[in-house]
Amino acid sequence: MLETTDERAGMPAVSATQGRNAGSAGTQRRRAGRPSAAVLDKAGITTAALELINRKGYDGLTMAALAKELDVAPSALYNHVAAKRDVLLLVEDHLTSLVDVSGFGPAPWEEAVRGWAWSYRNVFAEHTPLIPVIAVLPVTDAPQTLAMYETVSKGFLDAGFPQERIVSSIVALESFIFGSAYDVTAPADIFESGSMAEATPHFTAAVRSAEGQVDGPPADAAFSLGLEALIAGLGALREQRG
Amino acid sequence: MLETTDERAGMPAVSATQGRNAGSAGTQRRRAGRPSAAVLDKAGITTAALELINRKGYDGLTMAALAKELDVAPSALYNHVAAKRDVLLLVEDHLTSLVDVSGFGPAPWEEAVRGWAWSYRNVFAEHTPLIPVIAVLPVTDAPQTLAMYETVSKGFLDAGFPQERIVSSIVALESFIFGSAYDVTAPADIFESGSMAEATPHFTAAVRSAEGQVDGPPADAAFSLGLEALIAGLGALREQRG
DNA sequence: ACCACTAAATGAACGGCATTCATTTATTAG
DNA sequence: CTAATAAATGAATGCCGTTCATTTAGTGGT
């Protein structure tokens, strides 16, 4: 269980220990045995993992590298997480807290969903390796994620959604969002058919004709198109508010 | 170099060709050096990889296991693929050829898209570890995938879609399909909020009320809902056919 | 017919990875 | 005071993808 890694509540949490690689100098060895003040906690592990991911990407996120970042032996991490997967979970839950749900309540439903969806996609476009983890993640293990669902559910309910369709609607939107997050990371020339171009005339022509007139990144055009279709289609499920 | 040191001396001149793992018995060692008839090719590697995946899942798909399946030393694989990623690519392209595009042409656009999307999702729901690979995969490297795009593009064009919106529309649908494929693999109790239930009343209520009345798997309800919304929304882009 | 080159196999390595275990030391509960 | 527990080290394990030297077989040029 993740034990809310919420930093709003707990403060920096990492601070506690001056032990953090403060001195640029030679990180002198800590002697074996339990230290007087704990060096590690979940919040600190989360912060270090994010720092590492930002600096080296997900390939650079290894248990050894994470331990080094925290100035600790790799095996020490296993007193706080059962496996690397738990580290990814901590990161995932933290990132979810960055998703903007502020539109639900003040703004009309369409606008709230639009803002939430773009924000959600943008956050995870930088963290696609987490998506396979999220997909199978029981919400119990991720308090921030659960909080997001609560806010969004309430927004749907207040907008007049029939209760029994809310979860399916959110799942449909999320599926689109996760798939679209991958799309952001695709190389620009992904659709260049190269030597096979003659064999695929219609597709090649479609790619060419789309190239000319994109406003922003091509992934944004597809995301906008699909999102607006989903908002319109799902919005039709709403009932008159009593 | 003279053939002075004949190692076969001890062996009773194993008549060249029976070397293939003919005998069900103990797969006797192939001697080093290039064999008269090539043992490996891409089709064989693809088939063996699929067999392995079906039997042991993606965790069981290791280069060593694949080599064993093909009765070959692991390093032999690298004469045919540059890296494991290439094996995944071969599998991906094969699977794409299983996606049903037969609706495009005979059936009306809505129905064709519906059939294609369900088929596409069902194929890759069993192969979600490939999704990160597909997402970044230049189509040049996957002829079957390119063929699918060609068929679908033509279907959209014939249905009256403006050429410059076809690629974005397909990408939007694909994003939804990939995200939904993950959803299929999620455990049934993924949304049980457990101990946090009181803190998330609206979400918990929504989950409860959806539980009672599902026809099939919950993932199917969300997929259907989103897909119909996308078909309706994207279909509105069509122009009158000239 | 020779010879250089390339292609396709073996088998022995390599470094990196997540994880486990025995051990040490400190704190906490009874 | 003492037993249990918590949190660290450090050594070791096993697997994984990949590389390299070597062996053998086919191929193309003169």
From TrEMBL, chains A, B:
Keywords: DNA-binding, Repressor, Transcription, Transcription regulation. Residues 39-99 form the HTH tetR-type domain. SUPFAM superfamilies: Homeodomain-like, Tetracyclin repressor-like, C-terminal domain. InterPro entries: Homeodomain-like_sf, HTH-type_TetR-like_transc_reg, HTH_TetR, Repressor_TetR_C, Tet_transcr_reg_TetR, Tet_transcr_reg_TetR-rel_C_sf. The keyword S-adenosyl-L-methionine does not apply. Residues 15-27 have a biased composition (Polar residues). This is Transcriptional regulator, TetR family protein. Residues 1-36 are annotated as: Disordered. Residues 62-81 bind DNA. Coiled coil: none annotated.
